[in-house]
Amino acid sequence: MRAYRGPNLRGISELEKRLLDKPDTIFAGTDEVGRGCLAGPVVAAAVIWDYGSHAAGIKDSKLLSKSKRRELFSYILSKARAVAVGWASPAEIDMINILQASQLAMARAVRGLDISPGILLVDGNRKVSGIDMEQITIVGGDRIVLCISAASIVAKVVRDNLMIYLDGIFPGYGFRGNMGYPTREHKEAIARLGPTNLHRKKFKGVKEFLSDEFSVGFLHDKSTVD
Questions:
Q1: Domains of the chain: residue spans and CATH
Q2: Does the predicted TM-score (pTM) go above 0.85?
Q3: What are the DSSP calls for the chain, one per residue?
Q4: Considering only Cβ atoms within 10 Å of each terminal Cβ, which end of the chain, N or C, has fewer?
């Protein structure tokens, strides 16, 4: 846990500046990644930024190169007052749908923070269910709100690292490169090899290739595929 040193106002949004005018207010930003994937969890992060630290080019993870994301990931972990990650599994996504699973992942991230915020800044137009605090939703918040941008970077790097690891357990699907997104290579692999228990079996592009075993709830382990 880092002590707050006072605001460095360069590179932060007007909303954050207004919140910093209230010295007793602690606020966090949250964002998720992986909603559009065919495989893997949806991962969220929550960040309470130390506004005494320089923004250092932190912005929406989608606007950054892989190397820059990893550089900023380390910077965020070293400078933030608190960081936490949460996720929802493919099975949970199939059970409650991707929207609710994204909310669940964000709620888990917020609850995992070492510091309890009083206000939550949420990327998008939906408040996080199950979180009992004031929430402000910001469409495009990952592009304009520093703490949300930081959360987007953390979530992206954590999820990418997980998918690279899972590529070794489920070979043949190209997870190291596609990160579970519906690339042509990935969709062809599903058609050729069938889905794994990492795939979201209710998603178009996966459900068409489910075997009878999947239909009764049995999940294949494709870890032995050549």
A1: 14-166 (3.30.420.10), 173-215 (no CATH)
A2: yes
A3: -PPP-----TT--HHHHHHHTSTT--EEEEEEE-TT-SBS-EEEEEEE--TTS--TT---GGGS-HHHHHHHHHHHHHH-SEEEEEEE-HHHHHHH-HHHHHHHHHHHHHHT-SS--SEEEEESS-PPTT--SEEEEETTHHHH-HHHHHHHHHHHHHHHHHHHHHHHHSTTS-HHHHTT---HHHHHHHHHH---TTB-TTSTTTGGG--HHHHTT-----TT--
A4: C
